[in-house]
């Protein structure tokens, strides 16, 4: 044991007790010290305690004003070196005293006498017998239990926010800036904050809220402990996600407490909720809740939400609209139609209405009519730059810091976005979509990352955020869509990590896979042809489907899913539900996550989370967040280089794409991969250099198929990608991918000087092409 650490901890504990309680708690300790002094004066009275106390004199008495402190400081150090064993002996004595408490624990002794006289019982009785020091120890215990602990509880109670503050709302605007300080959006809630009295809110609006948020509101005391236990049980054993918080608790949490998710904060929430129930009537609490809860964005309170979503006052809301709004507060970003999740929004509205039927708040006939009604939402006309990016930032911040702090806390958020680049990328996406309308796609998206640190430089979620025609509010960058062949590098990277090489030969031939419980599966290439024996390099560069499926079958789909999940792919779970077609885009993914995969290749296999924020300052100017670029090496440097080398090999992909395609950036080595789903509903292009990663998409938000000409991957997304990459690389020197020390180029003279790149230890004996046409004849001179 480190005795110095023990001593420091003991001293710290004593100082804390002195500060919070005072001298009364130290009385037992003083008795112990005085008793140790008696031992020192008359050690013969205590034969079992053979302590030798050092003779020490305090040097502090010799200290004089303006004197030289160096010699004194040396003496002080010597003094404490001698003091340590003295203090430790006192501590040892205290431990011995703790073991002897029999006279004060008569009840315990009686119980022991009644019990079976085993060895343990006899040992305990022997230890407790004849204790003469128990009063001192009892003094310590009494002081801690009845003085220190109540005082600490009192201090904790004094620090709780007063429930009277619930009626005092203080709103400060939060500003979101680009990396150069240009204003993207200002969250200024006061201009949209319009409280209304409870008697002006229709009964069906109140009932919808109570049905989904707190059905026992008028019967509990501010906390529904049964609901909390039920939610905890469901979350722990059934994998659900229930809150269990009452309306009173939610009001307290959102108005008075920090968003931290700790037991301490939850305890404060419960206590203040109980206090609030004593300070206000139920109707007053409900009114404050409906006026202060967030319904998403700048919609604080039911009146503001009614105006924002439907352009009407709260008293004019019908049942369908009331049910929709009541379902928003638990997760505004998830259930808002403006964030693209229309299905989740409808499911939430249905859930609210079904609860109302169950509780008798609405009839089945009225609910059926409400469910059949089409909601007409008001257009969103707020001043905002890079709107999809701003919403993305807000969702992240609200998840981390809570809605109230983000919207009312007066924060200054400096993001990674480059507004000048953002405007250029937006123009490119919009013009390309308009100019290629004959390809039957109406929307496009693009994301630009700094490959080195994952910072978001440009974020275009659609061609027009405010367009109702294309559902422009939907953010394609965070939407889950099938990636087509753009996911193949994930499979091939895993294969290269598990014994494959760029020279591994794969037969591109007709094949049918049969699995129990599934229909036979026969993959086909985009061109409808078979290419015979091809190398892994050729298969990936030309995006042949059959070799990719064969490799996926060899690896196993579960390993591919596990690899993707490790690399940040959301909703990828190893549950055995995916087949080998996952390597062709059979599992949906976000553009954001897939772009970050390519950025990981650009960083030599170092995975970093996408970083949209540089710094956050609170209302007083103190920095509460600063971006730190931390990464993990999830893909080996050698494999990352091989992927980059293959994807930037224009000669290797010429068979499928030609030598002068839009995948070529003259004068620059750029790795690039396209992808198109079989249904022609999604078309992608991802490419990167060591400095920039660009991901682009075109399609239709309603999943209408595009023109079949997009099957080559060279139309649609790739021209957008090409133009963005040209803007990024204009005037910049070529930046080739740097090979790590364990990668080398092998040239095989036996195969007409064929060459290939390998990680050391993985190269085969010969590199002859699959058909052996280039292999030298052994009889040639």
Automatic annotation (TrEMBL):
Protein location: Cell membrane
SUPFAM superfamilies from the UniProt entry: beta-lactamase/transpeptidase-like, Lysozyme-like
Residues that span the membrane, as ranges: 6-26, 133-157
Domain of life: Bacteria
GO cellular component labels: outer membrane-bounded periplasmic space; plasma membrane
GO biological process terms on file: cell wall organization; peptidoglycan biosynthetic process; proteolysis; regulation of cell shape
Catalytic activity, reaction form: Preferential cleavage: (Ac)2-L-Lys-D-Ala-|-D-Ala. Also transpeptidation of peptidyl-alanyl moieties that are N-acyl substituents of D-alanine; [GlcNAc-(1->4)-Mur2Ac(oyl-L-Ala-gamma-D-Glu-L-Lys-D-Ala-D-Ala)](n)-di-trans,octa-cis-undecaprenyl diphosphate + beta-D-GlcNAc-(1->4)-Mur2Ac(oyl-L-Ala-gamma-D-Glu-L-Lys-D-Ala-D-Ala)-di-trans,octa-cis-undecaprenyl diphosphate = [GlcNAc-(1->4)-Mur2Ac(oyl-L-Ala-gamma-D-Glu-L-Lys-D-Ala-D-Ala)](n+1)-di-trans,octa-cis-undecaprenyl diphosphate + di-trans,octa-cis-undecaprenyl diphosphate + H(+)
Domain (Penicillin-binding protein transpeptidase) ranges: 444-725
InterPro entries linked: Beta-lactam/transpept-like, Glyco_trans_51, Glycosyltr_51/Transpeptidase, Lysozyme-like_dom_sf, PBP_transglycosylase, PCN-bd_Tpept
Domain Glycosyl transferase family: 181-356
Keywords: Carboxypeptidase, Cell membrane, Cell shape, Cell wall biogenesis/degradation, Glycosyltransferase, Hydrolase, Membrane, Multifunctional enzyme, Peptidoglycan synthesis, Protease, Transferase, Transmembrane, Transmembrane helix
GO MF entry, a single one: serine-type D-Ala-D-Ala carboxypeptidase activity
Pfam families membership: Transgly, Transpeptidase
Entry's family note: In the C-terminal section; belongs to the transpeptidase family.
Protein name: Uncharacterized protein
Organism: candidate division WWE3 bacterium RIFCSPHIGHO2_01_FULL_42_13
